[in-house]
Structures are given as structure tokens and as C-alpha cells.
Amino acid sequence: MPQGEPAGDSAGEGDRPHPPLRRPTTGYGIPEDLETPEPVARPDRRIIQATFISALILVVLGVATILLLNRYVYSPESVAGSYLEAVARGDAETALNLLNPDDIEDNNLEGLSDSVLKNAANLPVDIQLVSSERRADGTVEARYSYRIGSNQQQTTFLLQDSGPYWLLFHTWRLTDTALPTVDVEVTGAESVQINGSDVDLRHSNTLPLLYPATYSFGYRGTYMTADSEQLDVTDDSQPDNVVRLNLKATPELAREVSRQVNASLDGCAQQTVLAPADCPFAVENVNQINGDVSWKIIKYPEVTLRRTDNGWTMQSARGRAEATGSETDIVTAKVGRFSLGSDFEYSATVRVSGERVIVSPEF
């Protein structure tokens, strides 16, 4: 202990507690070690402007897209053009759905198939919109030009607004549509070939057809044939068309009729009486006939066919049959052989049903 210092003072100084340490403060009395909160970030004005402009561009593009779709995709002209394009590629189903013709359910619809339309001699090419006019009642007249074969044609379609699609797009449909029809007159046949496809006429010989197209009508079968006739069908306002086919017998028909006639006569010759039933020949013999009579066809009739309103007829032709057998003379009672000839005529009506020939004798 250094001399000169009071002992009591030294001991008391060592025993006193130290005062608490003070934290450094700012000039405002706020502790310096407290973290100052970071300032809240505010949106950049440039980002807001870019977002607004982008949204505005999207709205403009959306409106423009809707306007363009209504102008080129959902326009009345596009519906009429789509119909013509469907016809041009031979798509009868799509064309019918677009045209939606009136009152065809009860008609013979076999001429409205893809196979008939696709194989048409001529289908529309160079399809062009000529004019489009909106009427006071809201309907639209669309006139298209096209070429069928070497002929330039035009057709006007009437279209009606059928309501919005998704509340954004206009939809249009062809209206006041009717299909042109053709009456096919082919007496003696139950079908006809249109563009190479068989079409049954038993239900009706009046056929509605899609247009515009060039149709070929003909008939080619085993027993009958007809030269092809062509018809341009270009407008639903065409008057009723009539196609008349002149059927001609093929050599095979005459051969089939001859075969059936000869078979009929051979059947008659199987009978063992002087006058075979339902046959064109017979003989008389006053003597007593012993046993069966034998018949033989000496000459078969030649077949010549003639066209009629209802089919065909076999013109009357001569033939000869001969009967032989045993007889007993009624005067002398002598037994002997007899031989008697019978000249006859044979005619028949002939009907062709598909690949079947029906010969009905007339005598």
C-alpha cells in the first residue's frame, strides 16, 4: 500500500459496485445499435407503364382478331365459299351440311353420295367471289363465279345471320335453298349409273343433286346398255331436268332368252301326251295310242327382241316339234308306229331385273 493514503479509503473504494454501462446513443437518445427498418419499396413507374401498354396491346390485338375472324372466317361469304369448295373436292356430306336444303327427306337421296359427286365429269374450279351485298332485312347476297368444264358460270347465294357464337363471332347459314332435281327415264331398268355409281330407281326416278357439277348418266349391264348422257347442274333455280336413256339389248340378252325358250320347249317335250299342257305344240291322232308319246324338238324358234314401253318382247317365231309312238288302227286293228309333226309359233315378254331375265311365254 503506498504510504500517505488512508487505509479505510482504499478498502471502501474496492468494495463499491461499478455503475452500469451505458449504450451509445444518437443525438436523439436512440441507441445506435438498434437496426433501422428498411424503407418500403414502391413500384417502378416504368413497370406500371409497360404493363398497361402490354395489356392495351393485347386488348387491341384481341379486338382485331375478332374483327378479322368475323370478316374472313365467320363471314357470310366464307360460308358460301366453303360450300363451293366442298363440292369442288367431292365432299357431299360437308356440302349438304352447309347447304341444309329444304324438304329432301322423302326424296331418293342416292344421288347425293360422295362417290357420285367425286366422280362427276366436271366440278367447279377457279372459284372467285364476285360481289357481296347486304340487304335491308339483314341477309346477304354473295355471288361467286367458277368454271365448269369450259363454261364460266355464276351462282348467287342468300345467307342469313343465325346468331352469335361464343357471344363474339357471327354465324351465317345458307337460306332459301333447294336442290335441283333430275328425272331419269330409263324404261325397263330399275337402276341407273350416275358418274359410274349404281343408283336404285325403284323408290323414285326423281333425284336431287348437288350443284354445280356435270353429271353423267348411263347404264351398262350384262343384258342391257345405254349410251351416256351428260347434264350440267349449275343452279338451284334450274327448271326440272329430264334425262332419257335409250336402252339397247346386248347379245347376251338374246342368248339368255333363247336359252330359256329352248329349256321351256325341252320341258314340254318331256310330256308323254299328244297335247302337252301349257305348250305351243300338239298333234291329233284318231287311232288308239298305245303307251306313251315321245316328243322331239326339230326346230327351235329364233329369238328376235323388240323394245316396248315396259321392257322387251320376243317377236313371234316359228318352230317345229315331232311326236312319235305306237298306235292301233281303229279300222283294221293293225298295230304300228306313228310320226306326226307340229309347227308352232312362240312369242314372249321379257323383263330384266338387275342381273335376272324373266321370260313369260305367250301362246
UniProtKB/TrEMBL annotation:
Keywords assigned: Membrane, Transmembrane, Transmembrane helix
High-level lineage: Bacteria, Bacillati, Actinomycetota, Actinomycetes, Micrococcales
Region (Disordered): 1-38
Source organism: Saxibacter everestensis
Protein name: DUF4878 domain-containing protein
TM segment ranges: 47-69
